[in-house]
Amino acid sequence: MGNVLVIVTLALISGICIELLLFTGPILLPAENRGPIGTVVAIVHVAFTLWIVLLITFNFYHSVVTVPGYTDKLRAELDLLPRSVEECRHDEDDESDADSKHAGGGDDGLGESGNDQQMQDHTEGAMEMDQMPLISTRSNGDATLVSIIDPRMMDPKGLREMPRCRHCSNPKPERTHHCKICNRCVMKMDHHCPWINNCVGHFNHRYFTLFTSFACIGTTYFSILSAPIFYDLFFVPMGEKKYKIPADARIDTFLLLFLLSTALAIMIGLIGGLNLYYVCTAQTQIEVLDNRWLRNMARLNGGTFVNEFDVGTWRNLRIHFNIGHKEQAKFGRGWLSLLLPLRRPPVGDGVEYTKVSSLSSRDVDFA
Known about the structure:
Blueprint: H1 2-28, H2 36-65, H3 72-105, H4 111-127, E1 134-140, E2 143-149, H5 151-154, E3 177-179, E4 184-186, E5 191-193, E6 198-200, H6 205-235, H7 251-280, H8 285-300, H9 313-321
Antiparallel strand pairs: 1-2, 3-4, 5-6
Helix pairs in contact: 1-2, 1-6, 1-7, 2-6, 6-7
């Protein structure tokens, strides 16, 4: 069903583009009655139509094909972590055993008290293993390689301490939810959209927002230009009609596209406006419900709920569209870049997100 809706969406985009260029434009501005100003207006109309269709198609395509951010990669990284840590600790245990045997074979006069003290030291060292660097030695021919490993460096994302999804058992970073349609966990999941046959998540949310925004502009533009023709066709008497309709024109196709475009302009406008509101308040559709419940619970307990991801409307928009981020926006950093078909990675890796507490350090570019 999802693939069918994708094809239907592409057909609607193509149909509206063709109607604007070959039907609506020539009827509103017939070539025989154009003056210099009319010619300029016709050129602007064609250029604007091609530009808006390009942006709609570009962002729709990337909303469909961009992986929203599955946690399968995190699961693969987590599966590698225990093996590496166990190997380093195994090296430490081998060295400790060898030292113990060597000490036990000699007559150093320690006796049982010395062995007890040695065991106590070994136990205390094991308890502090997670806080101390791991020293791993390997033999490579005649040379002995010694490496010092900080356990925290082996798990910089904190995958060990991360909660697991009860459906797929993958690591579940904050703002991650399991999509029952895709049957996978999606980072910063907003919702599953059947029109793009994909989830809207961390890595394609920007494209989806731009797609809905430009689709609303495009359908509204077509409906406004086509409204006078629609009124002239169906509500003006035959002898008083203003526009000259070609005899071979497909009126039924125009009527269908006009009605669909008007309905889509209203529907997409509501959906896109709601989506922009969520972006401005740093929430997803799922988080809105969670935050509403948390806000009510805080109010009942005499407290105040604060969304830690909401760093202000302007910053939220800049982070969502990745505007002005020095590390990831090398080209086209300004707001005008949204008006061009440019690929742009999101801010962050889907594991950690910009928070109020981090603005003074790692996200100063958005301050």
